[in-house]
Amino acid sequence: MGCFAKGCITLLVLGLVIGGLTVVGGYMGVNYLKSFIATAPAQIPVKEITPEQYTAISSRVESFKQAVQNNVESRLELTADDINAAIATEDKWKELRGKCQIRIENGQVLAQVSFPLEKLDPKNSMFAGKYLNGTIGLEISINNSNYLYLTTN
User: Is 150 helix (H, G, I), strand (E, B) or coil?
Assistant: First the structure.
């Protein structure tokens, strides 16, 4: 058997191995993702607050915004309840109502989510009636440009 035949056989075997690993890896990946996908949304409570609580939180946030705009050093501390109240009441967060709840445990910000997958691609029937339910760990940071960044871990 010549070099050409040995090379062809080697490439054929290598192609079959890579193809097999791709199929097995894809199968395992899909099954792993299926463990996070449900056919019903998780029940995520919406925080209810009184008008007085809303006013108190809003005034703290507004004071912080004013201090930042005036280049005055300032600090804003929000609890998980404050953030959940904002999700429940602020129009800019309405997409998260009933789909996200924040909690803080041991200094880690966690978001319990129930995200409808059909929002990813409404035309794809594969996502219809499917939800991504789970808990996501978040890191919050501000860079030198004063932009707020959320990263998951």
Answer: strand
pLDDT of 2 reads: 73
H/E stretch holding 149 reads: strand 148-152
pLDDT value of residue 146: 58
Q: How many C-beta atoms lie closer than 10 Å to residue 83's C-beta?
A: 20
Q: Which tokens is 149 given?
A: 């960044």
Count CB neighbours of 132 within 10 A.
Answer: 19
The backbone region for 15, taken as left when phi is positive above 0, alpha when psi lies in -120 to 50, beta otherwise, is: alpha
Distance separating the N- and C-terminal Cα atoms of the chain: 54
| Alpha carbon 119 to chain centroid, angstroms | 14
**For 63, how many CA atoms within 13 A lie in the half-sphere containing its CB?**
10
Q: Are 97 and 116 in contact (CB under 8 A)?
A: no
Cβ atoms of residues 129 and 39 within 8 Å: yes
Considering just the CA atoms, what is the radius of gyration of the chain in Å? 24
Question: How many angstroms from the chain centroid is the CA of residue 62?
Answer: 27
**pLDDT tens digits for 10-62?**
888 888 999 999 998 888 877 777 777 888 999 999 988 898 998 999 999 89
